[in-house]
Amino acid sequence: MAQPFNPSVPIYLQLCERIKNRIIRGEIGIGERLPSVRELAIDAAVNPNTVQRAYRELEETGIVEKKRGQGTFVTEKPAVLQRMREELKTSHIKLFVSEMREMGYSEREMLDGLKDFLTDKEEKE
Amino acid sequence: MAQPFNPSVPIYLQLCERIKNRIIRGEIGIGERLPSVRELAIDAAVNPNTVQRAYRELEETGIVEKKRGQGTFVTEKPAVLQRMREELKTSHIKLFVSEMREMGYSEREMLDGLKDFLTDKEEKE
Amino acid sequence: MAQPFNPSVPIYLQLCERIKNRIIRGEIGIGERLPSVRELAIDAAVNPNTVQRAYRELEETGIVEKKRGQGTFVTEKPAVLQRMREELKTSHIKLFVSEMREMGYSEREMLDGLKDFLTDKEEKE
Amino acid sequence: MAQPFNPSVPIYLQLCERIKNRIIRGEIGIGERLPSVRELAIDAAVNPNTVQRAYRELEETGIVEKKRGQGTFVTEKPAVLQRMREELKTSHIKLFVSEMREMGYSEREMLDGLKDFLTDKEEKE
DNA sequence: GTGGTCTAGACCACA
DNA sequence: GTGGTCTAGACCACC
């Protein structure tokens, strides 16, 4: 979490992304407690209000739940996590497709290329 | 070409990439002449030696050919271009797969996700 | 009864309202004895004269009756209680209607809205 | 807007309520511009950040839309306004019903009482 | 001019 | 301790 921030995009959004990624990647488990607002603020070297805003944003998407006087926790609802996971997947794929299209590759090439790449890896391993 | 360079990777390699991309994308056609070393040096705000090295690198891969006293040209051999195109495609796919794996997605999810995404787009359009 | 008083309306009137509400709500039953003037004065932290005035006011409306040397009692006449109940109901409805009108709602909306709300609650329960 | 705030409920929520009421009441028309963050901050004697939070809250409910460099505007979508109006109506009715129930009145009494009250008013007028 | 973000630091309610 | 709210004042991007 000591990584620098891209100054051209709001810090609280970058914090959201980092946390969301860690949750979806499973680094922070279901129902697990996130660092407190103050802890993360110190860790990320930002103002507590900025962390609070990120946590608030995450709570609105439903991936996180706050408990008064206890802390902030990853939601216990697997459905929400699943939805987030799907959304993140689609957004990565979307980016990949737009880059490939931008390079002039057809959808056939993307699909077959991906299939071949994964198949070849299998054979090698 | 006035984009800044990533200081952590050799500029001549970045030049190679940019030129290769433009060729594969078709911005610079088959058999077409590339800008002269001096032109590109000024345009990219780098030392002519750096451009020279990039051109030499590209020539070694076979994607461009130098003609004494005339300049540097995109190869006329479609097979080479085709190979380059394939290599570039594979490297992009490789990056995509490693990122997705990094995020914890299975190969099934990548393939199906890509297929679904492309199919859905078709339906919408 | 330890609730604070609204300083902009006479305390004795507020006492009247509170007592009337408790009687109509059935907290103080028909024919039952009210707390003595002194008791209520201590309990509500007001001057006994204020309680006295409230009780006199209530007696004039007929909802309570004083018995010399015994105390103050809720009237035994159901008709009076019924009338009070109706009056209180109407005053609440009046307030509701004026608020809703204030907000720009039509009488149709009030009636249908109330009917729908009560019907929906039934279905859910 | 110079009314005092209830210190036991967040100012930004009270601001939201006041603005929502004014919009639903029609005091601020469809598509109309709201006071700027700074204006309202001065007018309501609160910090601009507090107003901003209220506006943000309203934007999330969809009743308001922000336009960069231009200001904050009441949404042009009648459906959203209609929905807000319905929600507000239901919440008022809910409060009324719970108060009446609390006083010991039956649903019959509420409905008939309201109907009678509105009918009587008609006759008088 | 508009809203958007961020900081620093305050006080609060809840547990 | 936790998060929730608020203030004061800064700088930014957009129009």
UniProtKB/TrEMBL annotation, chains A, B, C, D:
This is GntR family transcriptional regulator. The keyword Cell inner membrane does not apply. CDD domains: WHTH_GntR (cd07377). The lineage of its organism: Bacteria, Bacillati, Bacillota, Bacilli, Bacillales. Keywords: DNA-binding, Transcription, Transcription regulation. PANTHER family: GNTR-FAMILY TRANSCRIPTIONAL REGULATOR, HTH-TYPE TRANSCRIPTIONAL REPRESSOR YTRA. One of its GO terms (molecular function) is DNA binding. SMART domains: HTH_GNTR. The gene is yhcF. It comes from Sporolactobacillus terrae. Residues 9-77 form the HTH gntR-type domain. Gene3D superfamilies: Winged helix-like DNA-binding domain superfamily/Winged helix DNA-binding domain (1.10.10.10).
